[in-house]
Amino acid sequence: MKIYVMRHGRTNDNDKQILNGRNDEDINETGIAQATAAREVYEKLDIDLIVCSPMKRTRHTADVVNTKNLPIVYDERLIERDTGELTGRHISGEFRDVYWNYYSTEYDVEHVKELFERVHPVIDDIKEKYADKNVLIVTHNGVARAIYSYFNEIPEDGNMLNVGILKNCQITEYEV
Fold first, then answer.
1. Where does 6-164 have alpha helices with state H?
2. For residue 127, is pLDDT > 90?
3. What is d(CA 161, CA 102) in angstroms, rounded to the nearest whole number?
4. Among candidates 111, 3, 89, which has minimal Cα distance to 50?
5. Is the confidence at residue 150, as pLDDT, over 90?
6. CA dist list (Å): 118 to 32, 74, 75, 79, 160
7. What does the pLDDT average to over 9-37?
C-alpha cells in the first residue's frame, strides 16, 4: 500500500504569505494552474481512492486533479490546523519557531501535538479500511507535516518548522 499526500493549490492568502488556517477560501488562478499541472504526476500514479479535507481549497484541487474520476472520501480530521489568534499574521513572524514546536503550548491555537493527535488516527483508519488500495490524501501544509511525523520521528527539539513541508500541489509518497 502507498499513501500519497498532496497539498492544495495556491490561495490568495498563500500569495500574501499569511496564515489562513480554517478560513475556507478557494484556490486562485495560480492554484488552478498548479492543480492542472499536477495532473501529469497524478496520472502516472496507481491511485485507487482520494481522501480529502472538506475545505474549499482542497476540494477544488482534488476535483481538478482527479482526471480518473476516482471516488473521493471527505474527512473532517484533515482540515487545516486552527491558527487561532495567529490567523491573518504574516508567516515570517517571530512566532514561527514556537508555533511549529511540538512541545509548545504558547498562543491560543491548535498546538502541534493536538494537530498530530487529530491526524494520526486518519492514517490508521486509511491503513485499516483501504489496506489493499493506494490512496491520495489532498490536504493542507500543517496536516502534511502531521502525516510526515506519522512516518518519521519528531525532531528531538520538537521543531517542526522546516520538516514535512509541501509546496502547493506537490505530491509526496509514503510506503506502508
1. 12-16, 29-44, 56-65, 96-99, 112-129, 141-151
2. yes
3. 10
4. 3
5. yes
6. 28, 15, 11, 10, 16
7. 97
pLDDT at 93 over 90: no
Using the 8-state DSSP alphabet, how is residue 83 labeled?
-
Set of cell numbers at residue 122: 486518519
pTM assigned to the model: 0.97
Alpha-carbon distances of 3 from 8, 91, 95, 124, rounded to whole Å = 16, 28, 32, 11
Residues shown for the chain: 176
- Please give the average per-residue pLDDT across 133-155, as a whole number: 97
Closest residue by Cα to residue 61 from 35, 39, 30: 35
Strands across the sheet containing 2-7 = 72-74, 49-52, 135-139, 2-7, 171-175
